[in-house]
């Protein structure tokens, strides 16, 4: 096998049955490699989108506890010494805190179980996408290692085209 680029129309890609002889077979093979590279770039964006969706912070299950020093100032200004301000803050804090009647532990258990199942499914999907992405990446690398100029250009153009198509999707995901 030669260790330099050549521009022939005869090459064996990946498997014995993918043996290319002639310009028509080379054009078809370059097109297939180009499409595989575009798919590889789209997989990368999809995987990033899934990981960002799974890391998105959800609302906290309960409001933050009230801190007695929160909202108080410790300067001798007249506004800070007003007892009305302190009582108003206390009433607001009590109104926003959950009471025993609003807390339902059964609802939290179902939410935690479905959330845990959903995270496992997302993690499984991310793992499958990673396996496909790595396999496809190595296959494209082996295509380039045939040192055929046309296959190499197909991978490069497919990568550029795939990134051009996938980049707007990546911006929408963020």
From TrEMBL:
Membrane topology annotation: Multi-pass membrane protein
GO cellular-component term (any): late endosome membrane
Parts of the chain that traverse the membrane: 20-43, 149-171
One Pfam family from the record: Ctr
Any GO MF annotation of the entry: copper ion transmembrane transporter activity
Alphabetical keyword list: Copper, Copper transport, Ion transport, Membrane, Transmembrane, Transmembrane helix, Transport
Entry keyword Ion transport: yes
Xref: InterPro entries: Cop_transporter
Subcellular location(s) per record: Late endosome membrane; Membrane
Family to which the UniProt record says this protein belongs: Belongs to the copper transporter (Ctr) (TC 1.A.56) family. SLC31A subfamily.
Name listed for the protein in its UniProt record: Copper transport protein
């Amino acid at each position: 096998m030669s260790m330099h680029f050549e521009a022939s129309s005869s090459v064996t890609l990946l498997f014995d049955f993918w043996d290319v002889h002639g310009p028509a077979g080379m054009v078809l093979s370059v097109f297939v490699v180009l499409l595989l590279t575009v798919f590889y770039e789209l997989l990368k964006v999809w995987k990033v989108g899934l990981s960002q969706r799974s890391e998105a912070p959800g609302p906290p299950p309960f409001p933050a506890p009230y801190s007695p020093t929160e909202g108080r100032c410790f300067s001798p200004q007249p506004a800070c010494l007003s007892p009305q301000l302190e009582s108003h803050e206390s009433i607001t804090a009590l109104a926003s805190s959950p009471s025993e009647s609003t807390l339902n532990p059964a609802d939290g258990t179902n939410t935690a179980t479905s959330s845990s199942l959903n995270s496992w499914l997302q993690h499984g999907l991310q793992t499958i996408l990673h396996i496909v992405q790595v396999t496809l990446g190595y296959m494209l690398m082996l295509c380039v290692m045939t040192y055929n100029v046309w296959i190499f250009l197909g991978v490069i153009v497919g990568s550029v085209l795939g990134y051009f198509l996938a980049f707007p999707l990546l911006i929408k995901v963020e």
